[in-house]
Amino acid sequence: MRALLALEDGTWFEGRSFTGPGESGGEVIFNTGMSGYQEILTDPSYRQQLVCMTYPHMGNYGVNLEDIESSRVQVAGFIVKECCRQPSNWRSTASLADYLMEHKVMGLERIDTRALTRHIRIQGAMRAFMTTEETDPQRVVARACELPPMEGLNLVQAVTPQAPYLWTESGPQPVDPKAASGLWPGTGPRVAAIDCGMKWNILRLLSEQGLQAVGVPASFSADQVRSLAPDAIFVSNGPGDPAAVPESVQTTADLCQNLPVGGICLGHQILGLALGGTSFKLKFGHHGINHPVKNLADGRIEISSQNHGFCVNIDAVESLIATHINLNDQTLEGFRHRDKPIMALQYHPEAAPGPHDSRYFFKQFADMVRRR
After folding, report:
1. Which of 265, 287, 308, 337 is catalytic?
2. Residues 119, 291, 324, 348: which is the catalytic one?
3. Is 348 noted as a catalytic residue in this protein?
4. What is the DSSP letter of 148?
5. Whole-angstrom Cα distance, residue 199 to residue 348?
6. At how many degrees (to 10) do helices 246-255 and 266-274 cross?
7. 62-75 pLDDT per residue, tens
């Protein structure tokens, strides 16, 4: 089925929908990963984004129920050079096309993904609209221009849970926040994880370190979080502009006063803002599983999984020390507090998908919590 993809600057591409009729819009970005598309599709950090995969062939190993990172497909649309209709893998339970259709998410193929990626790299990520319903490219461009820009957009409210939940081996389980004593069934340190759109693998790896994790809505105040009697706080990844969630920034600043705090991705940005830093939007973002990061403590290079369109600057914050930098553009990838038990990474040490070079972060966080 013929489909059009148009960008706000007037550039447009013709392709084919592999999910039937439909239309969708959002910020168009590219991801350089060669695999891991199912984890990418279900990562809440991709909310309201049209994801273009630079690797040309997607869907060859299908999808399954074990590799999801949230309860639904989160991307606004998926753009590939070619979608494999007949996957071959013993774990596969459905094809990529069927999976997207089940979740009513549009998939586009047979466009020049290299040309689209090059255009984004030169001009920057921008608003875009894809549709099978409209035949006039200029009208599709107009639809793209009607979308809200990512800068200043609060998307956390669309992905944060409505109530607390306990992470278990079977996944998230609802809990009663009023029964604080019954929230924590185990004996390990208690971590209240502020869920701004958290990938489930973060919770899996916190649990592997012997930590008990309860996810809480990003709308919770500091007093509500403290009422759960946690030993530490963790601020998760999530979508959108960190400066557009000032309530979460203030809550985090309050919790930093007397509790150990860790953060990943958007959580890194929120922590940076809470402690006096500033944030800014990247030209086309970091999205892939092959980004080199330098650990400033030991000089080692880590190959990292990344997905963010914003960064934080802490140069003027004397209480914070940079721990990691991105070797592609020298942007900040991690920091710690000089005196308080606070640490954060911009990239994804839970790496789903991606390399495992940085998984030590979870042990360091657990050790920090236990030393409190």
Report:
1. 265
2. 348
3. yes
4. P
5. 10
6. 70
7. 999 999 999 999 99
